[in-house]
Design a protein that fits this description.
The chain is α+β, with helices and mostly antiparallel strands. The chain is built from 9 helices and 14 strands. Strands 6, 7, 8, 9, 12, 13 and 14 form a 7-stranded mixed β-sheet that branches. The protein has a 3-stranded antiparallel β-sheet with strand order 1-2-3. The chain starts with a strand and ends with a helix.
């Protein structure tokens, strides 16, 4: 049963003889265990829980000491769940859901208290894209507090599924978990990033006919949107990617040296000596999505976000209709 921030597992488990009869687990340990059971990778699991890997590893080891046995083993393939880990997994999943439900009920009961809304930002997504949403949230729910967290493409949807964040702001994603729903928030232009010393720096738009001459850099975790590939395909072209890296600054240094180009969102803040130029016809855009849990509880932070997004879309449609009439 849940008592404060602890769980007594004796009521859940028919424990093997080497497990203590009474064992106290923290909710953080349960959350870390569930994250690792999904990823089977300590680094990715720690990132999904927004905690450093050393702290994450210590928590897992502490959990194993409390339970009196190994929950995960490590080999060349990464982490593998042991028989004991598989045995307790269903019980800890139920405990995690019970804790989330208790938190939801508490938030509903204390509806006038401060409500914290945690939104994870995928790579290349600027906080500036949240300005209208945050404004609408604070207007509709004056006591709400919004926290933004940086996240990787691999871990953002997993963090949402685990309840570590309430929403994720990201570009287009081809595959989503079953328990996550995507809501269209806005659209954003994609621009070509080039050196200010490049011969094309003086032109206002990059000609489509010259795209085949360009060599491209790609930042890992930021896939080329389908709109980009479609544009190239329409002209019988294919992006010539010469280098990939997880280090955005390293890629910018290569662009400064005139070695290649890179597509970036218009809200990016490039370093000094770099310029952003649209492709002819302003033909490159990407959709910005807001990922939310499939099941949204009433008066939860996710519910506040859903209501704010709906109001923004309704206001946008009304503005478009008024301009059309005018």
């Amino acid at each position: 049963m849940l008592v404060g921030a602890a769980l007594t597992t004796a009521s859940y488990l028919h424990a093997p003889r080497f497990i203590h009869v009474e064992t106290t687990l923290t909710l953080s340990q349960i959350r870390y265990f569930l994250s690792l059971s999904e990823t089977l990778n300590f680094t990715r699991a720690a990132a999904a829980c927004n905690v450093t890997q050393p702290a994450f590893t210590r928590a897992i080891r502490g959990l194993e000491e409390e339970l009196g046995g190994r929950l995960f083993s490590r080999d060349n393939r990464g982490a593998q769940m042991t028989d004991l880990g598989r045995l307790i997994l269903p019980a800890l999943r139920r405990a995690h859901e019970a804790a989330r439900e208790a938190k939801r009920l508490s938030s509903e009961f204390n509806g006038t208290q401060a409500l914290t809304c945690r939104i994870a930002l995928a790579p290349s997504v600027s906080t500036s894209l949240l300005v209208n949403l945050i404004g609408e949230l604070t207007k509709r729910t004056p006591h709400i507090r919004v926290e933004t967290l940086d996240s990787s493409t691999d871990t953002c949807s997993r963090s949402l599924s685990l309840g570590n964040v309430d929403a994720v702001l990201t570009g287009e994603m081809d595959v989503l978990p079953d328990d996550v729903t995507a809501h269209m928030l806005t659209r954003e232009r994609l621009l070509v990033l080039l050196s200010a010393a490049h011969s094309w720096a003086h032109i206002d738009h990059i000609p489509v006919s010259r795209l085949n001459e360009l060599l491209w850099l790609v930042q890992d975790g930021i896939a080329l949107p389908k709109t980009v590939l479609r544009l190239f395909a329409n002209f019988g072209l294919w992006p010539k990617v010469i280098h990939r890296s997880t280090n955005g600054r390293q890629l910018e240094q290569m662009i400064s040296a005139g070695l290649a180009f890179m597509l970036v969102p218009e809200h990016s803040l490039p370093r000094s000596g770099l310029l952003m130029r649209p492709i002819e016809g302003d033909s490159l855009w990407r959709n910005i999505q807001l990922l939310l849990p499939h099941n949204v509880h009433r008066r939860s932070p996710a519910d506040a976000i859903v209501q704010a997004v709906r109001h923004l879309h309704r206001s946008h449609r009304e503005d478009v209709a008024e301009r059309a009439i005018g």
